[in-house]
Amino acid sequence: MKHFIILLVLGAIPAWAQQAKIVRGPYLQNFTSTSGVIRWRTDVPTDSRVYYGKELPRNAKSVHDARLTTEHEVKISGLQANQTYFYSIAKLEKVSNQFVKTLPKPGSQQAIRIWALGDFGTGSKNQLLVRDAVKDFVKEKPIDAWIWLGDNAYGSGKDVEYQKNVFEIYQEDFFPNTKLWPNPGNHDYKDNPDSKKLAYYQNFTMPMNGEAGGLKSGTEAYYSFNIGNVHFVSVNSEETSEDGTSIVDSTGQQAQWLKRDLAANKLPWTIVYFHEPPYSKGSHDTDTDEEMTKVRQQIVPILERYRVDLVLAGHSHSYERTVPIRGHLGQNESFDPNKHVFAKEIKPNHYVVDKSSAQGTIYIVAGSGGQLGKSQPSFPLKSSAFSTVALGGSLILDIAGKKLVGKWLGSDGKVHDAFSIQK
Ligand SMILES: [Fe+2]
To answer: How far is the CA of 117 from the centre of ligand 1 (A)?
Structure first.
């Protein structure tokens, strides 16, 4: 009775029954050829409803979750591969930027486009320019997957920083229709000493049970997935696993999973990404940094053993691309092109590889998506094919059948580096 009177006095309806406002999202997670997760945040707790269909608002299907929450996470399934579905939240309507194209069938040779972005959530002018350059560049051929290389939200990966420097920056053009596969950096780990409580884990949904292809990891900290004929592995260079080891222990929990995952992969292309690079002379020096030296010594041999094609990282606020290298576990000075460069055929910026000969791995640091930093006096790496800290930018990868083309798109909208690998 007392509550009833208070409600009458305030003329109030319970908060959850009011028209809730979406304050974050929608954004897309874990999308495969048949299912995916749509997430968003509301200002007050409500139930969750998503309408979806190829011809929205006609012939709509819907998923409803009656639980009241501000953090909405709805899985839609039973989708067909390679199809564009529109979706709406709470109300059946067509919203022009809310759509998702499902992935091609696993193993498909069709062309896919990847956008890899590192060290971006700063709120800087560079971040906006890099974003706008990509928005313009992908008009004709949209992005199939958006890969983050860590240090997503500065300075400490806090939820408010994710809101201001990440969600608000990319919401209009990318989040509602770009399938995201995140990776954390050291700044994202500053949010909380207890890694389980990081905003990074609260905000994102990763495939921990092998549901997007790849081997079950059992943790959101690291995971793998497949798109068409490419196998992707998101390795975590920041977290200590339950057995007390980290990625720099080649016999630890994560490294063991990485070996099993790579061994099980049957797809022709493999791209591995994590935050802290094994080779950099940008704002971080992999000759003097103990952690990154260990990544090189402990993890690079695993990547080489399984013929990983590309390794993407951030951390240094630069763009640095090596030639295809193998067996270069020492410091930069020890690099010898006669000993460490491997491909069946090498032309400037074009590499032919096949199983009959040893294959090098191309290592890319793409950590200037928002940050833009200094470099070491010995910049660039001796193994560098192209490197710059003069400009921010991000990486676009186009993979079709047996050809991969990589382009580093600067914040000025121009392609400054282009390379290709032919299998
Ligand atoms: Fe970093």
So the answer is: 13
Dist. CA 353–CA 307, nearest whole Å: 10
Residue bearing tokens 């290298």: 325
Spatial contact of 403 and 420, defined as CB atoms under 8 Å apart? yes
HSE of 410, CA atoms in CB hemisphere, 13 A: 12
Q: Report how far ligand 1's centroid is from the alpha carbon of 366 (Å).
A: 11
State pLDDT tens for residues 219-277.
999 999 999 999 999 999 999 999 999 999 999 999 999 999 999 999 999 999 999 99
Between the CA of 261 and the centroid of ligand 1 the distance, in Å, is 25
Q: From the CA of 149, how far away is ligand 1's center (Å)? A: 9
The answer to whether the CB of 214 falls within 8 A of the CB of 180 is no
Residue 310 tokens, joined: 């590309």
User: Is residue 315 a contact partner of residue 186, using CB atoms and an 8 Å limit?
Assistant: yes
How far, in Å, CA of 217 to CA of 112, rounded? 25
What does the DSSP 8-state code read for residue 323?
A: P
Cα 276 to averaged position of ligand 1 atoms, centre (Å): 7
Q: Which residues surround ligand 1, an ion (CB under 5 A)?
A: 151, 185-186, 315
> Collapsing DSSP states into helix, strand and coil, what is residue 131?
helix
C-alpha 367 – ligand 1 centre gap (Å)? 8
Which residues are 346's β-sheet partners? Answer: 351
Dump pLDDT digits (tens) for 42-94. 999 999 999 999 999 999 999 999 999 999 999 999 999 999 999 999 999 99
In the reported structure, the alpha carbon of residue 80 is separated from the centroid of ligand 1 by a whole-number distance in angstroms of: 38
Domains of the chain and CATH, by start:
20-101 (2.60.40.10), 112-422 (3.60.21.10)
Distance CA 117, CA 119 (A): 7
Q: Residue 121 forms beta bridges with which residues?
A: 153
